[in-house]
Amino acid sequence: MYRQTEIISDGSQVTSLGEAEGDLIINVGPQHPSTHGVLHLIITLNGETIKNVEPHLGYIHRSIEKMCESLSYRQFIYVTSRMDYLSSHINNHGCAMCVEKGMQIEIPPRAKVIRVLMDELTRLASHQLWWGAMAMDVGALTPFFHAFREREAINDIMEETCGARLTMNYMVPGGVMYDLHPNFQHRVKEFITLFKSKIDEYDEMVTNNIIFQNRMKGIGVLSKEDAISYGCTGPTARGSGVSCDIRKLYPYEVYSELQFDEIIETGGDCFARYLVRFREMRQSLSIIEQLIDNIPEGDFQAKTKAVLKLPKGEFYSRIETARGEFGVYIISEGGTTPYRIKFRSPGFSNLSALNHMAKGYKIGDLVAIMGTLDLVIPDIDR
Amino acid sequence: MTNEDLKITIAEILPAAAFEEGAEWLTVSVEPNVFKLFSQQLRSINSLNFDFLFCLSCVDWKTHFTMVYHFTSITHRHTIVVKSKLDRNNPEIETVSDIWRTAEFHEREAYDLFGVIFKNHPDLRRLFMTDDWVGWPLRKDYEDAINMIKL
Prior knowledge:
The complex is a heterodimer of chains A (382) and B (151).
Chain A: E1 24-28, E2 40-46, E3 49-56, H1 64-68, H2 76-80, H3 88-103, H4 109-137, H5 142-162, E4 171-172, E5 175-176, H6 184-207, H7 210-216, H8 224-229, H9 234-238, H10 246-249, H11 270-292, E6 313-320, E7 325-332, E8 340-344, H12 346-352, H13 354-358, H14 363-373, H15 377-381
Antiparallel strand pairs in A: 1-2, 2-3, 4-5, 6-7, 7-8
Chain B: H1 3-13, E1 18-20, E2 26-30, H2 32-44, E3 52-60, E4 64-72, E5 79-87, E6 92-94, H3 103-114, E7 117-119
Parallel strand pairs in B: 2-5, 6-7
Antiparallel strand pairs in B: 1-2, 3-4, 4-5
């Protein structure tokens, strides 16, 4: 099943395929609908077979890491919403957790549950968008509208509680910014009922579609060893059989008390990655169901000082976004701003495997492979 | 392995390694000239088996650079942080992209933003900046009046 892996290493170098007579070089992007953002790929083709894919990044590089060095610990979280804009709650959450770790702030139980609820709603919305876009990439336009119809319901819930639809900035060090909207529980329950019927429809419409399966099965195979070596995380790695769900391995907030499965597929191809994301939607739905009636009463924010000062040292927090492991590495000199901050973005590492995954497949498959990587370019460029 | 066990094992492999205390994970400082050999051992020794490089960062301390590597083992579930101090005027370290493939991109990022030279890297070019960009944006002494990133 797996292609022969040629990794690891006794000092021998990784070689890239050279250009030969008759090769065709084409540019995809930076303005191309299938790249889902400003990603530029230089593809070396032999006939229709891909010999080499070289991603060119930086079209939306804003140097967020440098910006954060002059922002205070309350301010820098707002910038991180602009990285992975489809899981902005989870980015904010990771940053807030890192600051809390440094300050040793214990957040109230209500805030923990609200955070997990918001994270899972975000994951669901992100996977919905991915599902629609994925189907669109391989030629089915209708699912995109179905996905957006249901995603709209989540966006409305977010708008009511957080005041924003995309860049929520709802998580702050110590908890969440405001309490839930009184309508929240009701709206979420309505959404659960709605989505439960829709997700089966999704399954019927796309997953069981033979044309779709033919486009996905056996395409872009990534072996388990390669997935680890390329630093892949999230559904990309779990589709190759790597157990890497941070929610299970290093549980944060209330994840250790919840009943949910880590979805692992061993196929390693596009269809396996598709199935992982799809099943994760059902898991997220189940997590939301478990929590929605059990939101504890109490404070939604711990008492914190107006100006946060992290003690001198290094702090690292890991969190599972919709795309994989998001890491925040803060180096503090004891001041009100971080000395250096590093964001380990999941998309960046996942993208590095693209060349390896696409080599030897046809150019039409590249779109399917990129679709299953679920790339969000601002997350990669930062 | 627990941090204590890791510490004992690593002290055996590399007696010159210096340990930092107080962090969440075991932190080891190694000299850049032995870093490559040390990282090969981290990957190849079965009881360690650090197969997953999840974060590679560079820090500008104004007097020197520090490369920070976060490794974890998918099989054993232990984590280690390896640091290496580089000369700021001539930052050079061996690449680990042949051991962990993900390092290829991460090292290009560190080269692009800090100007760290990774020896024997297969493709060391600018990643985010354009090829003709002058300067290393994430260094502390970097000033750019036009594309202002300091607030």
